[in-house]
Amino acid sequence: MLSNILDLLGRIFISSIFLLSGINKIQNYEGSHGWMESLGVPGILLIPAIVLEVLAPILIIVGYQVKICAALLSLFCIATAIIFHTDFSNQMQFVSFFKNIGLAGGFLFLVVYGAKDFSLDKKLNR
Asked: pTM here?
């Protein structure tokens, strides 16, 4: 029972940052669009980023298609680290790079192990 609760809490904790980030991008669409373009990333990619950052965390939290969503977010974390956070002379960018790499690693655990009993995946497979 405790491992199921900790699994759910872990999924909520690791997913929350992306859900909140996606909502923030929606609320500050123009600013996010401009920031991406200032770094040479086409602003049109903001839309799929928002969809991923909102939808995948919700699915991970409820425990549906966890392995697929976690794999996508792991790749997203690695890409984001490489594209946006490689100015290692800036301490915040250095920290952000390794935060994203660490989150990618956490998502890889979900890819390998999936969700425990408090998930739609488990309920639907019974």
From this structure: 0.94
Contact 46, 77 (CB under 8 A): no
pLDDT of residue 27: 98
Sorted by where each begins, the domain ranges of the chain are 2-124
Degrees, nearest 5: CA angle 91-94-97: 150
What is the amino acid identity at position 47? I
Name the residue among 106, 111, 23 with its Cα closest to residue 65. 111
> Length of the chain in residues, anyone?
126
HSE (CB half, 13 Å, CA atoms) of 9? Answer: 6
> Quick check: 126 pLDDT over 80?
no
H and E: helices and strands count for the chain? 6, 0
Distance, in Å, from the CA atom of 121 to the CA atom of 31, rounded to the nearest integer, reads 37
Distant-in-sequence, close-in-space partners of 59: CB < 8 Å, separation ≥ 6: 65, 66, 69
C-alpha–C-alpha distance, residues 73 and 103, integer Å: 9
